[in-house]
């Protein structure tokens, strides 16, 4: 990842400067919670995608740097809200903002970040980007509601699972790449290529995230194994067990989802291993990686294009 970031390191520093600048407020709580989130670090994966997409089409403009900050603000706002909804206590190896400050400040600062993102977008002066991001933000919110509705629902199909992750995760990856291309004035073909690349990286990223809930190291991932199970999330490894496993395995997983209980987590982990469900999920992520790489065909060769390809590969190789 360091090699990927190195291609746009100066511009990524500029994005971080915009983030810090735009977190300033005359309300102390906004700055306190906002700074807590910034200090937590994170991969800055979405801003990196924006910058690499911009660089793959030419020089990175100040407008694209500010758009990268917009994307990160929207992502951070969703995390603040998600952790409240999921009653999460740990993210990136330390207490979540809601654990540190309470639910109400987390929700309200999340609202502040959403609105600050739209203030920045209006200032960009590009109607197409503003419309696309308004639609994307609405899609993400709908995806979060769908995930909430389907929590504890063991009857969730694979198609419904993909619908949720496409909306709540992949949509922002796709929008970051598409927005960078729109701001570059790229033709429709290149805009679509980058959108498809971003979307597939986003789906692959979420698939691996769902894998790590059953085989990740909490010391590395920064969150507890089995959190998804405790929230009753019917992720792809579990859906595969219920479809392909024995009756006993399917009933085990079905009950764990319906009751939102990880008491039998070790048995569930054994089931997803024995049924080949982790490999099935990993192969799905590999397919998305290949689709992302295919979408880059036709773009001119450049360090940025190479870094996008490397990022697609890293999306399935990560341990956190």
Automatic annotation (TrEMBL):
Gene3D superfamilies referenced in this protein's UniProt entry, alphabetically: Farnesyl Diphosphate Synthase (1.10.600.10)
This protein's UniProt keywords: Magnesium, Metal-binding, Transferase
SUPFAM superfamilies named in the record: Terpenoid synthases
CC cofactor: Mg(2+)
Keyword Magnesium: yes
InterPro entries: Isoprenoid_synthase_dom_sf, Polyprenyl_synt, Polyprenyl_synt_CS
PROSITE patterns for the chain: POLYPRENYL_SYNTHASE_1 (PS00723), POLYPRENYL_SYNTHASE_2 (PS00444)
Family: Belongs to the FPP/GGPP synthase family.
Protein name, entry field: Polyprenyl synthetase family protein
Organism: Congregibacter variabilis
């Amino acid at each position: 990842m360091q090699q990927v970031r190195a291609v746009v390191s100066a511009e990524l520093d500029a994005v971080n400067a915009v983030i810090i600048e735009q977190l300033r407020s005359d309300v102390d709580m906004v700055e306190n919670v906002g700074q807590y989130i910034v200090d937590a670090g994170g991969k800055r994966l979405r801003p990196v995608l924006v910058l690499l997409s911009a660089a793959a089409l030419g020089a990175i403009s100040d407008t694209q740097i500010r758009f990268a900050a917009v994307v990160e603000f929207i992502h951070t706002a969703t995390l603040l809200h998600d952790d409240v909804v999921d009653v999460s206590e740990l993210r990136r190896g330390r207490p979540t903002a809601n654990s540190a400050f309470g639910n109400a400040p987390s929700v309200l600062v999340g609202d502040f970040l959403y609105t600050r993102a739209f203030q920045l977008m209006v200032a960009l002066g590009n109607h197409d980007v503003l419309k696309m991001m308004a639609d994307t933000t609405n899609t993400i919110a709908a995806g979060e509601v769908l995930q909430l509705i389907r929590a504890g629902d063991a009857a969730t199909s694979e198609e419904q699972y993909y619908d949720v992750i496409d909306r709540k995760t992949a949509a922002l990856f796709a929008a970051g790449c598409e927005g960078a291309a729109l701001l570059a004035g790229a033709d429709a073909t290149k805009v679509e290529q980058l959108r498809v690349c971003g979307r597939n990286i986003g789906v692959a990223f979420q698939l691996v995230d769902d894998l790590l809930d059953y085989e990740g190291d909490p010391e590395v991932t920064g969150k507890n194994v089995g959190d998804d199970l405790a929230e009753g999330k019917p992720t792809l490894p579990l859906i595969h067990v219920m479809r392909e496993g024995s009756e006993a395995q399917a009933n085990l997983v079905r009950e764990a989802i319906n009751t939102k209980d990880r008491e039998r987590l070790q048995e569930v982990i054994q089931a997803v291993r024995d049924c080949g469900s982790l490999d099935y999920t990993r192969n799905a992520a590999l397919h998305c990686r290949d689709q992302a790489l295919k979408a880059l065909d036709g773009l001119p060769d450049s360090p940025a294009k190479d870094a996008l390809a490397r990022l697609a590969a890293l999306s399935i190789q990560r341990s956190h």
